[in-house]
Write a structure and sequence with these properties.
alpha/beta, disordered N terminus, homodimer
Chain lengths: ~325, ~325
C-alpha cells in the first residue's frame, strides 16, 4: 500500500526521480533501448543532456566505447562506458555526441560501429559535432543535416555530399536526426521521444526536467547576426606573431553582434587595425566607409555593417579589439 | 602563426571547443576553481549541465566524492571523481547537485565537507534536490531557497527554518544559490557566471552552448497549474492493493494541467472514481459539482476546477484515469 501510494505520488507530480520510477515501474525492461557512443574528448552535455531525456522517458540507456575502458570527456570528466563495441546489444536509438571528433570521425572502428548500428536502429541522433562522425560514416550523404554553428562551414566543405542547413536547431530526415551545438541535444532528444512516443510524452518528459522545450524548434544559434562575419578574413590578416588573445564578450541577437577581444602584443592597436583593413581588401562585396574601420555590404536583402575598434587597457601592450556586426532591412 | 590563427578563429566564432581553448588560452591556470560534489545516485544533468557551463566560462572544474571511487548516477552512468574529499583543494564555487539525496543529506561526511567548503567558497550552488543537502548541512537556515518542484512541500516540511520559495527558477542569497529541478541548473550556473564575471560573459557562455538563457529567470515549473493539485488527496484515497499505475501524459501550462494514468487493477474504474470522491470529501475548500467527478475551489484569487474521468482500454482491468486542473480569474 505504501509503495503504491509513493508511486502514485511520484507519478502524480511527474516527479519521476528516475530510480524510484525504475524500481516501481510495471515494465521492468524498457521498451526502447538507447546506445550512446563515447570516445576520448566527447563533450559532456552532448551525451549527458540526451541521457537525462531518454532516461526520464523510461528508455534504457547503455554507454559504449571502442574498448569499454574509461573515457575522458572534452572538459576532463571521467566516465566508464557500460560496454565495449563488440559487446553492445542492438539499440532502438543510437546517439552520437560531439566534442573533439577529429579522431573519432576517421576512426574505422567508430565508423564501422556507427554504420552497423545505424542499420538496425529506429532512430540515429547526432548532437553538435557528432554529425561529423555520421558524415564520416557516409550516413548523411544526400540528407539534410546541421551541426555546431561555428563548424557549419567546415562541415559543408569536408562533406560536400551532405545537404548542410544552417537555420534549424535540429534536422530530421525521418530516421536520422542531427542537432546543432551542445544544448541543442536536449531539444533534439525530446524530438526523438516525440517521434517515437508522441508530443504529449515528450512534453511530459520536458516538464519532469523543468525544461522549456519548444517542439517546433526553439533557439537557433546559427541565425544570429555573426553569420554575416566574413570568415575568410581570419586567414587573410597578417596577425602579429606574439599576439595573445582572449574573448571578453561575444554576444548579440539576430540583428546585431558584438565581440570584444583582449589582445596583448607588441604590435600597437593602430597597426593591428591597419592589418585588418588590408585583410578586408580581399573580402568580396565589402565597401569601406572612407576614413573609418567600417565596411558595409548587402547580404540576404539586408544592409550589413562591420566595424572594428580598439580601446587601450591599463596594461602596456594590451588593448581591447571590438568587432561589431549590425544589420538592417535594405 | 597557425596556432594563433586557429585560436583567433575559434574565439571569433565563440567556438570554444573547450579543449582547444584550454590548450591555447593565455591563462594556463583558471582563475575560478569549481568543485562538484558527487555521490551514489546523483542526477546526471544536475552536475553535467553546470560542468559544461563552468568549463565553457574558462573555470577549472574538479569532481569530488567521499572516497574518490567511481560513482553510479541516478540513471546508471558511471563517473570517476577527480579526488576524494580529503584531497580536495579549496574552491571558488561549490556545486551540490541533486538526485537520490536521501542518504547524502544525512551523511556526516558529505555534510561536513559541504559545510567546510561553503565557508571558503565565493559561491555555493545547489541544483534540484541538492538543496536538501545544503539544508541538511544547516546552510540554508533563514535563507530563501527552492528545489525540484515535486519535492518543494516535503522540503519546506523537513527544513522549517528555510524560507522555501516556489515561483523562481533559482533563488540567490548573494553567496548561496539554490536552483529548481534538473535543467534549471544550467540557468543557475549561468547566473553564477553572471555574478562572478558579468552578464555579458554569462550570455557569451550561453551562446557557446547555443542555449537560450534568460538572465531574468525563465521557465518556472512550479508556476504550472498542477500547483493547485490537493496533494493530501494521495494519502486520503484508499487505493486498490493490486493497482499498477503508469503516467501516460502529464503536462499543461500556468492555467491548465492534465495528467493521464494507465491503471491496471481488478477494481473497476467506477469504483476507483468513488474512492477518489471519498478522499476528496476530506480536502478543505473543495466543493463537489453534484452528479459529477468535478470539484471547484477558490485559490490565489482564481477559480480552480479539478476533474477526474476514466476511459476503458482494450485490455480487461486496464483503464485510463484522467485528472484535469483548470483555472480562471475569479
Amino acid at each position: 500500500m505504501a509503495t503504491i501510494k509513493c508511486l502514485f505520488a511520484c507519478l502524480l507530480l511527474a516527479a519521476a526521480c528516475a530510480p524510484a520510477l525504475a524500481a516501481h515501474a510495471p515494465h521492468s525492461k524498457p521498451e526502447v533501448q538507447v546506445g550512446i557512443v563515447l570516445f576520448e574528448g566527447v563533450q559532456i552535455i552532448d551525451f549527458a543532456g540526451p541521457y537525462e531525456v531518454f532516461g526520464n522517458a523510461g528508455f534504457g540507456v547503455t554507454t559504449v566505447s571502442h574498448d569499454g575502458k574509461p573515457v575522458t570527456t572534452a572538459m576532463g570528466l571521467k566516465v566508464t562506458p557500460d560496454a565495449a563495441f563488440d559487446a553492445a546489444p542492438a539499440f532502438d536509438v543510437l546517439l552520437v555526441p560531439g566534442g573533439d571528433v577529429e579522431d573519432a570521425e576517421r576512426d574505422p572502428e567508430v565508423l564501422a560501429f556507427v554504420r552497423k548500428h545505424a542499420q538496425t536502429s529506429r532512430r540515429v541522433l547526432s548532437v553538435c559535432t557528432g554529425s561529423f562522425i555520421l558524415a564520416g560514416a557516409g550516413l548523411l550523404d544526400g540528407l539534410k543535416a546541421t551541426t555546431f554553428t561555428p563548424r557549419i562551414d567546415q562541415f559543408a566543405k569536408r562533406y560536400p555530399k551532405v545537404d548542410v542547413i544552417k537555420d534549424v536547431r535540429w534536422a530530421d530526415n525521418g530516421r536520422i536526426v542531427t542537432s546543432a551545438g551542445l544544448s541543442s541535444g536536449l531539444d533534439a532528444a525530446l524530438h526523438v521521444v516525440d517521434s517515437l512516443r508522441g508530443t504529449g510524452q515528450a512534453r511530459t518528459v520536458a516538464m519532469r526536467l523543468e525544461y522549456d522545450w519548444k517542439p517546433e524548434g526553439g533557439f537557433v544559434r546559427s541565425r544570429m547576426a555573426d553569420r554575416y562575419w566574413p570568415k575568410a578574413l581570419e586567414a587573410a590578416v597578417e596577425w602579429p606573431q606574439d599576439m595573445a588573445i582572449r574573448t571578453d564578450i561575444s554576444l548579440g541577437d539576430e540583428r546585431e553582434w558584438r565581440t570584444v577581444y583582449i589582445i596583448t602584443s607588441a604590435t600597437p592597436a593602430a597597426e593591428l587595425l591597419q592589418r585588418i583593413a588590408k585583410g578586408m581588401q580581399g573580402m568580396p562585396g565589402w565597401s569601406r566607409q572612407p576614413g573609418t574601420y567600417r565596411w558595409t555590404s548587402e547580404q540576404d536583402g539586408r544592409q550589413v555593417g562591420l566595424s572594428f575598434d580598439t580601446t587601450p587597457e591599463a596594461e602596456a601592450k594590451t588593448y581591447r579589439l571590438e568587432l561589431r556586426v549590425d544589420t538592417k532591412d535594405a
